[in-house]
Amino acid sequence: MDKNIELANLIFPNITKTVEDYEKMYPERNLPEGAKVTRYAPSPTGFIHIGALLSSFTGDMIARQSNGVFYLRIEDTDTERTIDNGINVIIEGLKEFGVDFDEGPLSDGTEKGNYGPYIQSQRKEIYHAFIKHLIIEGKAYPCFCTKEENDAIREHQTAGKKRIGYYGKYAKCRNIPTSEAIERIKNGDKYIIRLKSPGCFDRRIVIDDLIKGRIEMPENDIDIPIMKGDGLPTYHFAHLVDDHLMRTTHITRGDEWIPSLPIHIQLFQMFGFKAPKYAHLSPISKNDNGTVRKISKRKDPEAAMSYYHKEGIPSYAVMLYLATLMNSNFEEWYNQNKDKKYTDFKFDFKKMSKSCPLFDGEKLNNISKTYFSLLKASDIYNDACVYFNKYDKEFYDIFTKDKDYSINLLNIEREVKKPRKDIASYKDIKKEFNYMYDELFDSIESYEWQNITDINDIKEILNTYISMYDINDDKNEWFNKCKELCDKLGYASDMKEYKANPEKYKGNVADVTTVIRVALTKKAQTPDLYELLKLIGVDGIKSRFEKVA
Has residue 193 got a pLDDT over 90? Predict the structure, then answer.
């Protein structure tokens, strides 16, 4: 028997399927011409990072708009970093932001799609078949180097200012006779499997990245590990097998993986497979007191998607913001097509930034305000109820005590040509409208009186106003009565007249309506006063006016 076959059978005695068998089991996908197959392939190691959301969003859109397939693959071969329920955290977390998958694992433990399993720890036999193939062909070998021996190699390379890695003369086990390797395995020696790289560091390879453009790099000549001591594959090797068998056409991922490109390209070449196209995304950065740095899980609360839930920023608004980071021309398109969804926009790799997009919280708030301004008040109310029930139970009870009242409040100045944009988050509803709820009104510390501050003048205006107020008046009738009040009390009812002869008057109609507004709300700036008065009602108006000292 050929020694390589003997070695492969010794290491994998129960692996009977071949690479050719798996090629038949996972055939080319029957998709329309030009359709793209993309994937999001996270490790279940913790919360979802905003950069990961951007990467998955990109893959989703590129597949969706080409009538392709977007699938979820869980890369859990690093067992030390895997957390309990980590897969569900990913699935449910991405679903909350509108990222859905055509194929992949489901939160109930099942999966959808014909190219699974989609969890790497369940694909061990597949990886073993591919590694066995390499061993038979003499393209991989067992390495018996201990941790101490590997550390010594690294120290020697560091001291001599050499490249770090297992290559050339440092690849101690590369040329061990196959018969010797067989005997050592039979004797129980521990080992891993390494790739026998055919590369030469002095040769260059060229990759056409869909975002970065032309990338020229040295060929890989390092005999990388492809199977660890526990029998699980390394990331690099699992990536090759899965992306090939799942028929991935385009890989979107962070540009921290660019240094791995020579390894990945080489692995595809060693099997004679066509490599997918790569699109490396620049990381989202942040301006930290003048220093631009990559957004950090440890330093920046905005990095965690749970932050946006707690702040009450709608998931859809977050996705609109990420779309502006994803394609430079999205914002202009959206401003002209507010009636459309971001999924209607044609995303293009060529419009993706080669440099790091800068996180801009103010821009996110503005986008969120615009989004809120386009929603129905009833929809805002329903989603706000969910938010407050989870994050502010006290206000939830206040907010939901009179559903119609809260919806009507949210609806003020909404159905106009230029709807107000005072809400950027569900949390803002309480901040912006606390004065409209009697339970919170008294907790507002002070009245924001403006030009009229004398308490006697204020009381005179309020007492006169309430005697004239009729809740059935239309807006013109209401404002005319405000002018009548001005004429009675010595204030200018005509702004032009006031500007021409200010010395003749105690103030003007704007000053008078401001007194009414502040007495009613304690605020100088609010939505439409006429609508607020109608909503609060005559008894509520009287009660609030009486509170003015």
Answer: yes
